[in-house]
Design brief:
CATH architecture of one domain: 2-Layer Sandwich
Largest sheet: 7 strands, antiparallel
CATH class of one domain: Alpha Beta
Structural class: alpha+beta
Distance between the termini: 93 Å
Shape: rod-shaped
């Protein structure tokens, strides 16, 4: 059972890496505040929970922008300052969507300056380009880490599988050697049994002869006793 489980894990990890795809970052539109809003959308394979953690840590560490959890895996920072993008105070939102058809995740990033005023490419080209650049830098770093971790996992499974393969080959060689020894033992036992069977047949004849001799001697003894008893 252990072998089957290990091989199943190997196949799963291999399939997971094999179908991976390069991230796609583009102008997007997604729902925020119950309406479709302009945003920057990046699509990749890792799930929302992993991306959420990485995105939150990235912005805090590199830009001192602290995001808080919102609905589900979503993130937000209200009345925040993000100088790397703009000098204006803003509400910063990240919404995640899971596409079950191709098993990808969409990370939609919004910046809201006021009521129904969202960062967009037309009205805020410079700020929009800055945010786009940051998201791209994050995506490259995040995905490199993600797939490096998957690669390490794959290499670990491969090493275990190769070790198990070597052990199985060695076990088979030992079993094959045991079979050859058993075959020789069987031949030796067969020969020994044949010799013992022949001895049994010889012994049977000897038993018949000895039985006849014993009977004859008993008769002689009886007669001798009669002779002795007859002497008075």
């Amino acid at each position: 059972m252990k072998k089957i489980i290990l091989l199943s894990v190997f196949v799963y990890v291999f399939s997971f890496i094999g179908k991976s795809q390069i991230f796609n970052i583009a102008d997007g539109t997604a729902v925020n505040d119950d309406m479709a809003r302009p945003c920057i959308t990046v699509t990749f394979e890792p799930d929302a929970s992993e991306a959420k953690k990485a995105w939150k840590n990235y912005l805090k560490k590199k830009y001192d922008l602290k995001l808080k959890s919102d609905r589900g895996d979503d993130l937000k920072a209200e009345e925040a300052v993000f100088p790397a993008v703009t000098s204006r105070t803003m509400d910063f939102y990240t919404r995640f969507e899971k596409n079950k058809d191709d098993n990808t995740t969409k990370m939609n990033v919004f910046i809201k300056f006021g009521y129904d005023i969202y960062l967009n490419k037309t009205d805020n080209p410079s700020e929009y380009a800055s945010l786009m650049s940051i998201i791209k830098e994050f995506s490259v770093e995040f995905l490199r880490t993600h797939y490096t971790d998957r690669l390490a996992e794959l290499n670990s499974v491969l090493a275990k599988t190769e070790k198990e393969q070597a052990n199985t080959v060695k076990e088979n060689e030992t079993l094959a050697g045991d079979i050859e020894k058993n075959k020789q033992t069987i031949e030796d036992l067969k020969k020994e049994n044949e010799e013992k069977s022949a001895q049994i047949e010889t012994n049977k004849k000897t038993i018949v002869t000895l039985t006849e001799t014993i009977t004859a001697k008993k008769e002689e003894i009886q007669k001798m006793n009669e002779v002795i008893n007859g002497i008075k």
